[in-house]
Amino acid sequence: MWLPMLKLQRIVPHGPLRSLTNHCIRMSSTVSTAAAEQTPPAKYERQPNVLRKKLSSVVPGSVNLQVLGAGANGAPSAVYLFTDQSRYLFNCGEGTQRLAHEHKTRLSRLEQIFVTRNTWTAVGGLPGLALTIQDAGVRNVGLHGPPHLDTMLQSMRRFVVLKNLQMQTIDSTLGVTFEDSILSVQPVVLRSEQQPLQPILSYICKLKPRPGALNLVKCVEAGVPPGPLLGQLKNGQDVTLPCGTVVHSVDVTEPAETALSFVFIDVPSVDYLESLKAQSEQYKQLANSELTEVALVVHFSPPELTAHTEYLDFMQTNFSAGTQHIYLNSHLNRFSGYAAAHRIQYQLHQLAPRFFPLLAEAAELQLSCPSNTLSHSLKKTKLDNDVEEQRENKLNESQLTNAKEVKLQQVRQQQGFVSMSSFHLRPKKGLDRTLESKLTPEEYIKETHAVPGFSELLAQLQSETAETLKIESKRYPRIIFLGTGSCIPNKTRNVSSILIQTAAEAFMLFDCGEGTHGQIVRLFGRERAREVMLQLQAVYVSHLHADHHIGLIALLRERQRLEPSSPLLLLAPRQIEPWLNFYNRQIEPIADAYTLMGNGELLEQPLAGERVEQLGVNSIATCLVRHCPHAFGISLTLQAQHEGEPIKLTYSGDTMPCADLVELGRNSTVLIHEATMEDDLEEEARIKTHSTISQAIQQGRDMQAKHTILTHFSQRYAKCPRLPSTEDMQHVAIAFDNMQVTVEDLQHYHKLYPALLAMYAEYTEELEQRAVKRELKQERKRKLAQT
């Protein structure tokens, strides 16, 4: 059509011919315009669909199982299975997404989630994970597990808003096996007579066997022509030749590999042991099958169960000596995997050990499993294996294999497991510890002293504060920051949570983001954390965004397990009640763990008297703030005094600049205020109803607060935000995770800034460059708007 039309144009048509030509041109122009106006599909939506279609029938060449969390020190127990095409997650406790972020595990390609229980231990990380993968462009995820997962998601809809993500819940207790081109996952249901409404799931996973190599000689003999038919035969598909002859894949390929199986087992208590033993025949048949080999068993069971005689007998009876075992939640798993939190703490510790104490987890880890001992064990194992290989002539091959296996199992059990422990299923290489998360304090310190000028500024700071900050303060309140980031956790800043030690044996919590209990365990150590949980008397939730209260269930359960003398006082918006009631009714009982008082009830009449006196507090008052519906600020008047007056502590929660908060916090000793955005992003802060750094500082001035602490930073400021002038920061502190200060400490905090800014000079310079680029972009937009 186009060639004749161009010829017509060259001869300059006229009359009817010209009209026809113009009509064709107009039609082609219209078609071109319409094509240009069509919006192409978004890349992240189109590309996965194309890949999935291409690879749907291809058996992957690489299949690896990776421990995301080993259940140590408040970390979740979670396992990530990834192949060339797909990703699968097994269990999703609180903190899973933070570990995935730290270890660069791509959740954006997650397709299926399998959980063994519907209790918070296994699903506490789902709300945060769902919001994160939705932002990453994931549109569909399968969620397999016990009943009530669908109603749980429905009950979270107030604070987990999934506009673009569809989570398709599958009740695996119905016995439906999941299957795709990569593997099959068969649920095994455990039930207890004592808890008939709480079924537990284990999973038997079987990889699809990879077809053997294509034998080209046999293909030629069978008459298969070169081209795509060879690829289909290689992938295990039978083909029909043009002449009608059917060529079977098995006839022209080498024998396929033995299919590997791996098992996830979760037995929460002795009540489920009988049900486990009833499944013995099923596991025994799996282990004895000639079609598959059980390579690995992953245990989600608690340590008191994995040490139980009947449990051990079951494993020994039903699995061969060659089967590897990974015990999550074991007492030997001593490191949580949050290495970045330790890194920044070691670095800040140099500035002021009193403000930034080293995490107790680091000390416990050093005592129980020094890194040099671990390295020595690994080297010793390699040498022992070499010696055993030299004796190969004297030992039967099976005896040698068993001896090696026993030796390796003993070493592994002594070491335990941590984040990034991996097991290579295909190609079958077994356990791989090369990428395991570990601490290297010497490197962390060396990094800072490599920064030009830092060592000199640090020496100057230490000489200025040697006397004032040398002795640990015993005064109260002590303000302990457990989470100082906003929206989602990153590797250095967890989401909102502030622990206030109001008296020697009394604590109160401001907000309770995901992973709050784990932060307490890692900061204080396991024994001291138990004491803190028993002495924790009140929790305040400022509003119902997920990053401010998702950690509440785990906190209530842990405190309930310790059998405290009285329930926790929960100050929160009343709208949290349906969620807590659902969890108590459908999942596990928590109603006795707390007493709820609505924040709105304290607007007119502050809480005072016996209910708060034992907390070391005279009164608690609230006000509405400018963020979302039912968002509150809070002010405490404490029994402790500073300069002869009761200490007044005010916390903003999330808010824009708010006059009501200024009135509530008038003459505060300390204001803790959110500072989500840098000053250049004031418009973005307004749209998202947050405050900038300078706005937060001004709020402190307006209420005549003696000291202001900034927190709730956007996760773009993982280390240090962009700060205003030095003069503005004289009575202002910026919060870091695991920082703890008293009122007296805040008088000296400004002395840290020269060394602090020098330590993160490269990072702050990067922030400045981003700001310059952002301003240039805005300037171009303004010029375009004027033209």
From TrEMBL:
The keyword Membrane does not apply. The keyword Transmembrane helix does not apply. It catalyses: Endonucleolytic cleavage of RNA, removing extra 3' nucleotides from tRNA precursor, generating 3' termini of tRNAs. A 3'-hydroxy group is left at the tRNA terminus and a 5'-phosphoryl group is left at the trailer molecule. Its cofactor is Zn(2+). It is an enzyme of class 3 (hydrolase). Residues 77-125 form the tRNase Z endonuclease domain. Its EC number is 3.1.26.11. Belongs to the RNase Z family. This is ribonuclease Z.
